[in-house]
Design a protein that fits this description.
The protein is α+β, with helices and mostly antiparallel strands. The chain is built from ten helices and ten strands. It is globular, with a radius of gyration of 23 Å.
Amino acid sequence: MQGIRTMSQMNMNRGLVLLILLSVKILAMHGATDSLEFRLKEYVSKSNPRIGVAVICGDLTYGVNEKDSFPMLSVYKLPIALALADARAQAGGSLNYEVEVDGKSLERDTWSPMLEKYGEERALIPVPELLAYSLQMSDNNASDILLREAGGPRKVAQWLNEKGIHGVAVECSEADMHEDPARCYDNFSTPLDMARLIETLLLAPQDEPVALIRNLMENCSTGRNRLSAPLLPLGYTVGHKTGTGFNLPDGRQMAINDVGYVKRPDGSHYVIAVFVADSYEDDEATEKIIADISAIVQSGLDAQRQNH
């Protein structure tokens, strides 16, 4: 009987040890997450601009001011591209077709690198080239051409609603915003809904049109001092879309944004959306805010993975 009781006690002790180890592991995981969220909230609270952050990493979704609305600016070119890609995929087509464009009808007084090549004559322009201008160089003329191909703002808004993305609003074109800068606020997003858009509609689909968009985003030429600044030296891949506003009459920068996904060398990923509005800092200092947040998220999530 004494031997039986001893064996039972040993099993109980072993079970207790396993329970303690499991509890320590769970606490460590929560500690890493709490630490990351604490660091983000502390950083945002000490910053002058209005900042929104959302991160999706596997089953983990969290943020700071992630449900507040921010002007997207050129970030809105991403949902336009995705709406067009999805429409083509649903119709059994691809993005490998051409659009006829009259160069003389293109807006001159706007950011548009494509004017150098297509600013004078009528031409057939491949859609992948227009997407490259829009997503990689943030070309405003290319974006408006793609918006028309996608059916216009109302069609893109309908598509977002059908996909369950209710916090991203596409209401007007680049031409509309150029005519009335106040309309920049009509194209808005919450950080959380933008992160959900990227996670569910950009990273999940495996079709060719969306793969093209991912490839273009991973070779984006704008905003190199933002999300990707602390990550590229670590061997991470960043697919992202930027948005940059202008100075308001009182000296504030309307908004500087960067949203996208980060792929680690082992193939895992996370999604991050950072919106910075109403900054009294110059553009360089405001971009550094995004880079700082990107570094905090990367280090926090990596710590969490090590404790898992």
